[in-house]
Every structure is written in structure tokens, then in C-alpha cells.
Design brief:
- The protein has two domains: 142 residues, no CATH class; 157 residues, no CATH class.
- It has six helices and 19 strands.
- A nine-stranded antiparallel β-sheet has the order 4-3-2-1-6-7-8-9-5. Strands 13-12-11-16-17-18-19-15 form an eight-stranded antiparallel β-sheet. It has a two-stranded antiparallel sheet with strand order 10-14.
- It has 357 residues and is an alpha+beta fold.
- The radius of gyration is 31 Å and the shape is elongated.
Length: 357
Amino acid sequence: MLTFGVQQPCRCVVTLHQHEPALIRNILYALLLVGASALVFYLVKYRSGGTLNTGEKNFAVADTAAVGKIFIADMQGRKVELTRNGSAWTMNGRYPARKDATDLILNTLRTMTVRYPVPDAARKNVIREMAAKNKKLVLYDRAGRELKTIYIGATPLDNVGNYMLLDGADAPFAVEVPGFHGSLETRFITDTTDMRSRVVLAVPFTALSEWSVRYNDRPDSSFALDFAKADSFRVYNPVDGTTLPRKQVDKKKLFDYVNLLKEVYCEAYENTNAVKPGILAQRPFCTVTARLRNGTQRVVDCYRKPVDRRSKGQDEAGTPLPYDPDRFYGLVDGKDFVLLQYFHFGRLLKNVPYFKT
């Protein structure tokens, strides 16, 4: 609790000139003004709406390493449960969660701070609006014990932070991340598609037995990399069996390529896209297969994406294009329909001559 007091005056003897009383009087007025301003600031920031329980504004989590589970739900019935698994997070007990999204949530929990308590005049309206529209955030420690529950409401008129209310508290607060201008609510994602990791393939070299890319429209350009034998490799065409002599293989290119397989991303999940049935009814232009040393395999069938309003409709010469030059669709392990980029996934679509010295 802060207190204000008056210091005892210093017993000094000062010789004053004729103009000095006015100067001292002005200095005293200035000091009184500063003191009054400080008092008003304190009352507005810390005492608005009466005496508050310190726990009612304890929103931040100083030690986010202690958080083991995060539950987020919105008023539309969407729910996301994030569970810590070592250094990574799993979403809804099924999919890896986006690392950038979970990092942002933890950083927000660590750095968010109270701006001011909602004044009495606005409190009822803010609570009523939060009751109608909010996100519920529940935090648990690594042992599964609940740490705190926070209701996240609308953004104040100045668009800095959000109104928040701790479960069981009476007083909502405006909460922000210092230096950030905007809403914090969007950081707490409840859309499972948006929260899910975009990594569709993660194949470390030590787990890889064979990798192949078969082009249905250009079979002679197909290639495969065989690592089945210890300390050995083979680059060949799986269609006709032609093998690139080992002395002609550019080893740097080969292992730089294999290094790309550690994390292969999609741009988006398109499982609910209306075009999915029509696309999958077509023949894939290529099939990518990773056979692993544990006997399992990962398969991505790749399909051309017709030009739409988001695509470049013509090439540099002005010739109309039938397919999107930047993106194509993929079906991962026969389950997930995804949007892929030639800029990223397309780096894997090589041929045997590419690996030649």
C-alpha cells in the first residue's frame, strides 16, 4: 500500500535577495503541481473503482516453463487444447501444434500487463459484453493443476490490448503487451486448422531408407535415393532402373537435398475445400514417397491446381495458363488435402541429372 507524507524542513539559514521570494514561491507551486499530478495518476491507475484485490489483476505468468497445458475456447463452440510434449506442443491430443503460434501465446502470457482497471461507470457494460462474447483461457501446470482461468473480452476504444477478467474476480482490467498496438485476443487461436502445424513431412536422414519422386506425365524424369545399406547410397530412376554411377554423384547436392526433408511445409490445410473431390478424381502429376527404416512410409500425391482468381492467369509472354504457376494441391498419406508451394515443396521435385557432378 502506498502512503504519502511530508518531509521535515531542513533548518538552514539563507540570505535572500529582493527577487528571491518570488522565485522560491514559483518553485513551490511547481512542486505542488507535480505532486498533485502524481496523486491523480495513482488514483486513476490503481484506485479507480475502489479498493481492488491484488489477485484480481494477476494475469501474467512469469514462469511459462511451468505451464503444461493450455485450454482455449470461444463462444462459437470451438476449442483447442494444447499439451506440452517435451519442447513441443500437441493440439487436441492428435496433431503437432504450430511452434510460432505456441511461442507467441507463451510470450504473451509472460509479458502482458495491466494498463488500468475498468472505471465504475463502464464496468457493467464491459462485463455484459464479455458475457456475450469472450474467449476462455485455462492454464494448467505440468502436473495438471489449474493455474488460472482468464476471460478475454473486446478491445478498448484505443485498440490497445483487451479487457480481461480473472475467474472469480469482480473487476475487469484493460491488459496489454507493452509496445504492441492491437488486440491480444487473436493470439489465442481456437481454429484447429489454423493452430495445427504446417509441417507435413519430417524425415531425418537417420530414419530414411528410400526416397522417390515418380512423375506420371514424365516417367523418364523420375528418381529415387536409396539409403537402405549402411554407409551407402544409390541415385537411380525407379521406372527403368538406370543408376547414376557413384563417382558421378555430387555428394553435396545429394545431402543438401536430403537435409530439406527434415521439415517440409504446406501453405494451408484444404480438407473442407469444395474443389477437393474434383481434384482427387484426377490423376496426380507426381507421387512422392518416403520409406522409413522402421518399415512405415509417407506418401504425398501431387495434383495441378487450376488457375483461379488468386492465380497468375498468364505467363510473361501473355499466354493464358491452365494451371497455377505458384501452387498445387497435395494429398498426404491419403488423409489431408493440402495446398503446397512450388517455391518450397517444389524444391523436392528434381530428377537424376540434378544430382550429377
